[in-house]
Amino acid sequence: MEVVLFYIAASIALTTSILVITRTTASHALIYLIVSLLAVAVIFYLLGAPFAAALEVVIYAGAIMVLFLFVVMMLNLGPSQVAQERRWLEPRMWIGPSILTLILFFEMVYILAGTPALTSGVAVSAKEVGERLFTTYLLGVELAGFLLLAALVGSYHLGRRYMRARREEIG
Amino acid sequence: MEVGFIMILPLVVGAMLGALVLVWWERRLLGFLQDRLGPNRLGPFGVGQMVADLIKLITKHDWVPPFADRLVFTLAPVAIVAAMLMGFAIVPFAPGWHIIDLNIGLLFFLAMTSLAVYGVLLAGLASNNKYSLLGGLRAAAQMVTYEVFMGLSIMGVVILTGSFNMSEIVRAQEDLWFFIPQVLGFVVFLIAGIAEAHRAPFDLPEAEHELVAGFHTEYSGMKFALVMVGEYLSVILTSAIIVTLFFGGWLGPDFLPPIIWFSLKTGLFICFFVLLRAAIPRPRYDQLMSLGWKILLPITLVNLLVTGAVVLLAKG
Hints:
The structure holds 2 protein chains of 2 kinds. Chain A contains 7 helices and no strands. By secondary structure, chain A is mostly helical. Chain A has 2 domains: 2-124, NADH-ubiquinone/plastoquinone oxidoreductase chain 6, subunit NuoJ (Four Helix Bundle (Hemerythrin (Met), subunit A), Up-down Bundle); 137-171. Helices cover 67% and strands 0% of the residues of chain B. Chain B has one domain (4-315). Chain B contains 12 helices and no strands. By secondary structure, chain B is mostly helical. The longest helix of chain B is centred in the C-terminal third of the chain and has 31 residues, at 285-315. The chains are: A mainly alpha, B mainly alpha. The interface between A and B is medium-sized, with 26 and 29 residues.
């Protein structure tokens, strides 16, 4: 049963990922990307990581993709952009990347064919994830914290400069 | 007692009917609060108004603007309603009365509210209208912002319970309802819940005196009805979640069955939502944002810190 569910979710994830890169309208590509992330969340759940699955939906699909869509809305790309995308996505553009990806794909199949299943199928609770994050992977958590703090300070600074310039402009 | 999946159909029908009744009840209550009558022509107390509204919306011309992105325009209202209905799956109405007793229940609710943003956003984008686009942009910024506090404010409850499971959260409140130790969390969650449901006073995405009707300007007929149903569903869902997290869910004195206690408490919060709409004017957009980041965020962080410290000290 779980195997069937896995293959359904995996094929949805693959199809939507391909559709993401072949769409010419940015908003349509983003919708497919969201569906792809949801499919990946289902796969996480099936592999026994419910917490990761929930975070995948809340953070990736729910927050980051909203910001992507936000930018798409701000730029408000018109038909001219679609035409440009269409020019860039000519069939001959696909030849090089496709061949390289195929080589990698066969290499991956060759490696994976020899190894047994990668997961134990045991569900990992949210508590275990939290304990690991603050013991084994504490350094990673702190580094991510630094990065977020830098982003916060940076955006604060940008906002301030903008506001000051505006105030001088007004009077 | 496990009810599980047979509850899906009654729950969907019940939630939709609830949203329909709420349309009438809100107008009636608003009328009472503003010292006027509200709908009062059809049937006793104007109850027939909701049927009349429904018939009107069904028979209206279902128009898709020629400049709109047709497919996305049609699917966006469906996405709003679907995400909200999915959220009901983890609400425990009485002991064992839930569709699924998920061990990440609370996270599932947060996931569904964050997916509901897309309905609003895509509706605004697909309409291809400047007012809709502005409404959608506002909705995106507002909902992403308030999602942060919504998630953080309920972490105090999770610390006290030690679980994301909704039934366990209710059972942990048998001695003391969480709104007493988590009063800050409750206040922030309530405000964030209103902002997430983009209800008045935080209905800036559809502020009618600046943006016509915001993200649903171009919607008519049944698509418009779906957008409205989504809004009322989110009011019901937010009330139900507030009751579950902070007011002991189905718990109450024995003379009434648990499901009645749950419905009564939820009903009370729905009325509170309506009262807010009648009482408070809409803030300006930058006021909304600075309220969020400058007041609510520090409050939730302090709440989280204090709760964590107290729980650690109590453990010894």
